[in-house]
Structures
1.
Amino acid sequence: MKRSLFLFIALIVLSVYSRGQSPQGGLNCFTMVAGKDATADGSVIIAHNEDDHGKNLVNWYRVPQKNHEQGETITLATGAEVSQVETTYGYIWLEMPGMKFADSYMNEHGVVIASNACASREDNPELTDGGIGYWLRRLMAERAASAREAVEVAGELIEQYGYASSGRTYSVADDQEAWVMSVVNGKHWVARRVPDDKVMVIPNYYTIRQVNLSNGEVFMGSDDLIDYARKRGWYDPHKEGAFNFRKAYGHPGSLASDGNIPRKWRGLELISGRDFEMEQSFPFAIVPEKSLEVKDFMRVLADHYEGTEWDESQRYRNGEPHAHGVNSICAPHNQYGFVTQLRDDMPVDIGTVMWLAPRRPCIQPFVPWYLGMRDMPASLAQSDPQTALENHFEAPENMYEAAPEHTFTQYARFANYVDKHYGGLFKTIHDFKSKTQQQMFREQSKVEKQAVELYQKDKEEALEWLTEFTLKYLDRTKRFMQEFPVPQ
């Protein structure tokens, strides 16, 4: 009881302090990143909830590899010109029309990219030709054959143009290693490799503390990162000792936000099996309680503080869990959740898989989308990749009305319907989700084994086999939703 009262009072104090101070509000996205020795099957994992306010749409696109003419350039949203490379890699693109920082990527080399808004304290950024923002992660996907190379690509672009947003942490992984890259408004950034035996949790504040740029195997960043912080008065080595990037560059309101601290606390407790104090200084990464499976990450992404003092819905007896109290991991503004399983013991087309739950991870099964899938169903996209890119910032105001037949619109309307009847529907929804998920896990190894055997003889047939596996369960979720009287 004392601990609950203390945490409640502490959170109220943090809330009063932080609201109105952080430029990004601390309500966008949640990510976990795991090294290959922290998982049961040796996979590197990024688990991510994409959180964005408003009525949004998610398009699924497959963008092919492309050769470019000499002298070709890219015009960024800010107006800057970037020289194009000779060949850009192909990738699966989760696009949210109109959003500046919401897209996720999985490229042909198995490099996965997601991000979390992290407000910085920079108030005088250096930008060249308006800087770079939306295009940064796209260029990482198009130009990087590894996670490390993606960080290097982004670092060069930031130092050339400057980052045109308050701040952000990019999570980047391949089947060998994972990195988190924290960028600051302007031309400063730092990246740290996630230890192979650990897992890290990222809400919407910087998580990198220690920085040792002389150790290139673990750290990368701006050469003047520490000198600039000292110059701005954000770091005093005589008073503070070792440099702490998070403390020096993080916006105080973001670091103290009640939208950040409880989610970080909850994620750490769920994956570690240990107790953490809300007010303590959380570690950069932790060794999990046990080797983690894909389903463990799915469980965290669907969490609303069930069984804790923060569950104000009291396991849905007081209504749906997204409308209460402190911002939860599975939140009302969640647009999709995914767990990427990156493995090196099979061809990259098969070993790279994104388990995706559209709109709400708490009500939808995570369906596997393989990198090698050849076709995306027409109902998952409004147009084609080129048209989507050209019109990305010209999205209509109400996406549901603009795309009534889009599959994502069906998921969104179903989520809204479930929220209104959460307590009564929870058992039915949970039973379907659990049963479907277990069936997919049971079938996965068999399907992948057959796909690997086929791949050696007929690559296209193998990839078609994987596509059929995914579409079978996509269709199953759509048919389940149709059993409910969801308003159109």
Note: Confidence is low (pLDDT under 50) at residues 1-26.
2.
Amino acid sequence: MIKVGDTLPAVTLMEYAEVEGNGCSIGPNPVDVAKECAGKTIALFALPGAFTPTCSARHVPGYVDHLAELNAAGVDEVWCVSVNDAFVMGAWARDQKTAGKVRMLADGSADFAKATGLTLDLTARGMGLRSNRYSMLVKDGKVVSLNVEGPGKFEVSDAATLLAQAKA
């Protein structure tokens, strides 16, 4: 499992763009994790699935609500990573009104989840291999704090916890 001090895995995530710009075409666009993290402080949180109850009602809204405070604490970008395809993440971004606030990044084949060692097997629930629920503060591609939830929990990966770590 990834730990504090480790570098994020060099994988490519996908992001659905609603409008063309900044070299991105409309639709799914690749996001090279290593390149996108270079020189930035990222508040990254991951969760089991788009449109799921806790993720939609509490996890994503917390980061949207705390964005200004996270930015004031030195966070350049907030990323939400989930094992879903870019089209689902794009639809969820619209639903959660994250445009310009939280980058909704698709880990469609669970490459990022597997590379971090933070997978969650939800096959018995019909969801297959997913990402565990966690948050991490990343500076220039390196993990500086990591908060992994226990099974079925939502206690340490919330925006308030990561905000306190960003302020420290």
Note: Residues 89 and 104 are 6 Å apart (CA to CA).
